[in-house]
TrEMBL record, chains A, B, C:
Source organism phylogeny: Eukaryota, Viridiplantae, Streptophyta, Embryophyta, Tracheophyta
Domain of life: Eukaryota
Record field: compositional bias (Low complexity): 17-31, 45-61
Protein name as annotated: Secondary thiamine-phosphate synthase enzyme
UniProt-listed Pfam families: YjbQ (PF01894)
Annotated spans, Disordered: 17-62
Length: 210, 210, 210
């Protein structure tokens, strides 16, 4: 299942930009509000055509949380948008506006957002990480060769894996708009596996919104 | 418009620290709660002087989302706090407590929080990024000169731009306290443009709170 | 106080994974919902044994925010999970599902998630940061020795500290499940102090959930 990206113009429509309004009329500030009275708590949208029949109950805040296990992947960067979206699509569709939070439960892999098209970008990123976080030696004109790591018990790839994990991070927050992840045309979610031995990786996904 | 920073002492006041209470009295735990009954659901604040007349409706969870387009900026790091705050100030002022989420819809630029005063810090950061993610060659005493990238179709600055984007990230979450972004005295929001050719950049801003 | 980690299996139970259901029966989609009517707004949990008597009020969205001051720490990476959990434990216990957001109010230190067991991992990470962001000179086979920084007024460790802060970031968001931070077995929260002179560091903690 491919993530369907949406244009940012409709995303902007959730409330109108003040500067594009005629200065003589008061700025129409439309935003998602939850109120005690569902009848009056509907989404006020500046582009009413896109939401002809807003459901008042849609403005009730809701939470969903799920732990997803990703299958073992070889060392390197992997596009996982389709897998993630497939896991949460049904719940995602119920959110008009919100945030999707991903949290990787590991310290030797990472989550990042990057290019979703050319796999060379993922390969080059892996090349970069291996150059910048060497497994054995730092070498410099000033200092010559120096041993890199104290923590070597779990193999030469382990300590670099920990560092790469902090460089890219283990957590992402992505906006939800009109039932979909609101990402750019070329953006995708990557899981970067930094260990040599593939292992299943768990991601806690938390959805919050209205 | 300059972001008005607030002291962290009043930020702490949202609920009282348990350890500063006399041990003989029960700890007063004050926090933001939403309840079904607006009359009893007001913010209970340990520092009542700062909120003499709390509006019960202020405790209703609310969401606001907007896509902001930043004008083209030259390659390098740019302070965008005033621009961001100007775009959301009116909505921000209605949140007593919450989170502001920024999501850059691109893979060759990044968002980060760093020093807001001396522009040399931004220049030095750009210098660092260019040193650490070279456009053409990795050179080392061990390996000599080696070609850097497979992904070169979009120019020599493109692949390094992708890597820098994952290093700093495309997403930020900032606390909201008393209607303002709750950042440190020296903190600012930076947009780092990693491409040579300036291009407009879009940021989805999501506000959530009470 | 040690953070008690929970198994991801019970975390998943907040709503059931669609694929593990028999195809003949409709998928039971259970999630945390807030409704206007507390009687019908209780948590519907696929694992009813873990929540025999759900409190309907627990499904009311709530917010808590607090500024924590960490004592001065020497330059390097430090495990602060116990300190953070101690500060928020009482409030955390009231959240069935949610997110904990940490925001460091400084630009020369950072927050990251990494290994919580072997202190060598923290030492090696500090070694890496110092190699990759030198205080005085960049040295390369191609360019020879070149002065590093323009921003030197606050000492040679200041500009590298700013860069390290953006590399690891100053903000973390961690899922809350059943009253606890839902992190992996080996994950811990690190404060990385990048300045030579220890100084107190403030973290704004925002809890949001049901």
């Amino acid at each position: 299942m491919q993530l369907q990206l949406r244009s940012s113009s409709s995303a902007s429509a959730l409330f109108s930009a003040v500067q594009v309004k005629p200065p003589s009329s008061p700025p129409v500030r439309v935003k998602a509000l939850f109120t005690k009275n569902p009848g009056s708590g509907t989404l006020k949208n500046s582009n009413s055509n896109t939401n002809p029949n807003p459901n008042p109950m849609a403005s009730n805040p809701r939470w969903a949380q799920k732990t997803v296990t990703l299958p073992p992947l070889r060392r390197g960067c992997h596009l996982i948008t389709p897998k993630i979206v497939k896991e949460i699509a049904q719940d995602l569709s119920e959110f008009k506006c919100g945030l999707a939070h991903l949290f990787l439960l590991h310290t030797s892999a990472s989550l990042t957002i990057n290019e979703n098209y050319d796999s060379d970008v993922r390969d080059d990123t892996e090349t970069f990480l291996n150059k910048i976080v060497p497994e054995l030696y730092f070498v410099s004109l000033l200092q010559g060769r120096s041993a890199s790591w104290k923590h070597t018990l779990e193999g030469p790839d382990d300590m670099p894996a920990h560092i790469k994990s902090s460089m890219f991070g283990c957590t992402l927050t992505i906006p939800i708009t009109d039932g979909q992840l609101n990402m750019g045309t070329w953006q995708g979610i990557w899981l970067c596996e930094h260990r040599d031995a593939p292992t299943p990786r768990k991601v806690v996904i938390t959805l919050n919104g209205i």
